[in-house]
Amino acid sequence: MKNVPARVTALRALMALRKIDACIVPSADPHQSEYVPEHWAYRKWISGFTGSAGTVIVTSRHAGLWTDARYFLQAERELAGTGIQLHKLLVQTQAEYVDWLCGQLKPGQVVGCDFAAFSLSQVRMFGKLFEESQIVLRDTGDLIAEIWEEQPPLDGAPVYEHPRKWAGASRGQKLRKLRELVRKSGADGMLLSALDEIAYLLNLRGNDVRCNPVFVAYLAVFSDRAELFVPPGKISAKLAALMESDGILCRSYQEIDALVSGLDPQTRMLIDPGTFNARLAHMLPSGTAIELPSPVMLMKAVKSPVEQKHLRGVMVKDGVALVRAFIWLEKQLKKKKSVTEYDFAMQIARFRSLQPHYVGESFDAIVGYRSNGAIIHYKPEAATAARITARGILLVDSGGQYFDGTTDITRTIALSPQPLKIKKHYTAVLMGHIALAGAIFPEGTKGIQLDALARQYLWQAGLNYGHGTGHGVGYFMNVHEPPQGFVTAWNQRGQTPFTSGMLTSNEPGYYEEGSHGIRIENLVLSIPHESAKGAAFLRFDTVTLFPIETSLLHLPMMNRPAVQWLNAYHKEVFRCLAPLLDAGERKWLKAKCKAI
């Protein structure tokens, strides 16, 4: 990243001109997206760090990147030679760089950031903490755009419909449900900026963000109409006419400012302070905002019976694609003796692409051979990918986007006999995975209450992992979907109660730098369990279908319920996938699903 020092120098010059002592450059865009369009990839541009999470702080004397344990090894590699120092977050979800700034700056000094790239809640938190240290927080606007000479434009790819037969409900039905929820909140309408919520609500999809089928937009929903704000050229005349027939007007993306600032002071608008950006929030006329978590977030998280039906079907064809991909790998290692991580990632995508209703990958596949498996969000590149041989272990985390669902699965496989140490690590991870998969709990239980189930066997050995145990997963939508999840540290995903119909990943792991990485991931659907004395209970139904490696097991660590769970799971995998395979593929699958 030879250009990074020059970019930091250019930013410092602009900061000096605007009398800014420290600048915060986040990973987010004006829609608080986890993965952003290249147009807003500011943190990547200024630092060279390509991970999905991280914040850069630039002062006159220091430039640093704050990121979490998923990215420590990756950041060390990518920041080398840039002059940017890695700061390792102690807690994944905390803005520890604010404490650092409060300790570095003097009273009266100015911290600048683009309020459009932060939610209203974040800016309020910054303001409170900086005020306590007598530090000034200022909205600087988009500084990076002023120095990024070759900034990519917003993508002009067209928006397209997600047919009702897959979506399960029309956009009219979804809008009616939202309006009812908005009325109950005491509001007259709602302003939405989260791209996945807008796409879900309107049964529309796009290609503005790699691997995430969303498009750049804002949406205003009123009692009698809705207004969609999108960049020019993205909505065809035919689609615009269909939208208008549903009471949705298409307007220019930039017109959102005029609508927000020009709202009737008597009109109450619901906004989610956790997703609505602070720049727009500060433009709202005084007294017009009602602040609540977005009801669309929960609507989207609870999969309908139609969506659940399609999800189960998509897991079958995704499993078939992976069977063929892993058979391909085995054949290549026998024939060619080696294949690159990158080539295998491309083959996984190719085999998925042969399945009906495939759209693309849900994220860039993580194919980590041996020590690369310890880089939690490792992405192999064509020029630098390691060569996989028939030795060691391989971690493969991948997923697909289909019109009828989204998948996310991780398997760790043995390419040769492994030492007892690695087998014990693997078995502890699998035992935790099974413990969480088999959980039965009262409805309303939170992810933070269940997370320890997945970690308990690692903890017994004094081991742990530095990422959450699971996240919500969208339906032909973002692979990371709030609000629910399994975490040890407090954040929204850990504090959201589970309800029936939520789709969540179950993915404990263990990573040893320079040696190996282990992760086992399935998707689980929360469904009703038999009630006791009238109380509503839930359980998890594992819907991902692909064999789990058994040659890495240390059987003395396995208890009877875990063995029974694994054998039952493999029986179901074979039952569902075998009818779609040829004789050779069925033979391979039968061996992988053999009872232990």
| Main sheet overview | 6 strands, mixed
Low-confidence stretches: none
Second rung of CATH, namely the architecture of the largest domain: Alpha-Beta Complex
- Helix coverage percent of residues? 25-40%
Which strand-content bin applies to the residues?
15-25%
Give the number of DSSP strands. 30
Shape summary: globular
Provide the CATH topology of the largest domain. Answer: Creatine Amidinohydrolase
What is the count of distinct domains? 3
Mean pLDDT: 95
How many helical elements?
20
Roughly how many Å apart are the termini? 49 Å
CATH class division of the largest domain: Alpha Beta
- What is the spatial order of strands in the main beta sheet? 4-3-2-1-5-6
**Secondary-structure class:** alpha+beta
Describe the overall structure.
By secondary structure, this protein is α+β, with helices and mostly antiparallel strands. Helix content is 36%, strand content 20%. The protein is built from 20 helices and 30 strands. The strands form nine sheets. A six-stranded mixed sheet has the order 4-3-2-1-5-6, with helices on both faces.
Summarize the structure.
The protein is α+β, with helices and mostly antiparallel strands. 36% of the residues lie in helices and 20% in strands. It folds into 3 domains: 4-147, Creatine Amidinohydrolase, Chain A, domain 1 (3-Layer(aba) Sandwich); 160-300, Creatine Amidinohydrolase, Chain A, domain 1 (3-Layer(aba) Sandwich), CATH 3.40.350; 305-592, Creatine Amidinohydrolase (Alpha-Beta Complex), CATH 3.90.230.
